[in-house]
Predict the structure of F-box domain-containing protein.
Amino acid sequence: MAEERSPVSFLPGDIVVEILARLPARSLCACTCVSRSWHRLITDPANRHRLAQTLSGFFFAGPRFFAGVCSPTHPLVDPSFSFLPSSYKEIKLLDSCNGLFLFRCSLTPRPDLGPRLSPLFYVVCNPTTEEWVALPQPSYAPGMVFYSDEATSDTETTSAALGFDPAVSSHFHVFQLLEQEVMCTLFLDAIEIYSSETGKWVLSKTQLDKWIHSTGSMTYFNGFLHFTIDYDSVASVDTTGQTWKITTIVADREDPASSDSFDDALAIYALEDDGKEWVLKQTVSKLDLFGPDNSQDGWDLDVAGFHPDGDLIIFCDHPRLRLLSYDMNHMLVHVICTLEEVPYNHRPFNPYVPLYSRALLATAQKNDNAHEQWIFYYSTKKHEDR
């Protein structure tokens, strides 16, 4: 007797793809186990632009190295971002957000203009579609230290972040922090925000009643840029620069794992939907998770990121050069891959989620008239420079 086949197996491939295109990434991943034919359809590059995408991996140590989440293979894009014009030099990867990447670059000096220092500028690109746009200059040049007559009021523009949520809008925002040095410590004084919708920068002074010392860890979520500060707090600013707030993590004094004096435990907090309170979700022993400590200074772990379609936290184990994932639901640790090198700096890992939308090119064309001439000259000569 012939084996009974599922009615789904008789559906044409294009109909199946149409159905799969309506699923979120997490459900789509589960569908790869339905049958071999479905697995082929989901993994077929020809269908990839129609299907929901999820975290593919992380770029780290600049735009040169990539670590895949599912496997240590290279991404479907060039990790060197070679599609950027060859005239772009000193390319520094600053941030990524939902498929877009933020760089700070300089230009090759033009012989006809004579020798001069090339200003730094920001570039936002989509490595999946190889689109890019050079941004107009903010009022304070990027990546600079502006010295003043008073030693305590030097201003730095070395930190910037990217905000983008394709589920809400095709437009992106770039946040440039203006930090002042006070007693050898940098405090946030103001922020400049670029909107791809208007093509302009807006300068906003901090509207908080306390000194803000950013630790360098920044994340864009739900229309706000969130950055960790001292005193177990998170400062947030919206895309207009008009709404500022601070949310504080209140330790549970009855739970020793939530106390700063217990460095052998991991405490995980989540921001409530109203954005007003951090709630303790889980505490777990680092010894149980990561094994015996082989470092004299304790566990040397960095949070690389969070998986958007599951309760997974990605860690970098510096002493062992490993990328780890922690499943909060099952409290299990999995070794993703080993790494060749990991720099000790702010935000060394930049998550990559493939983005097949070509909205970035339309944004670049719309805002060309807002670009400085020295940027516009090179950005319109992409094909000549390659």
Q: What stands out?
A: Residues 83-216+356-386 form one domain.
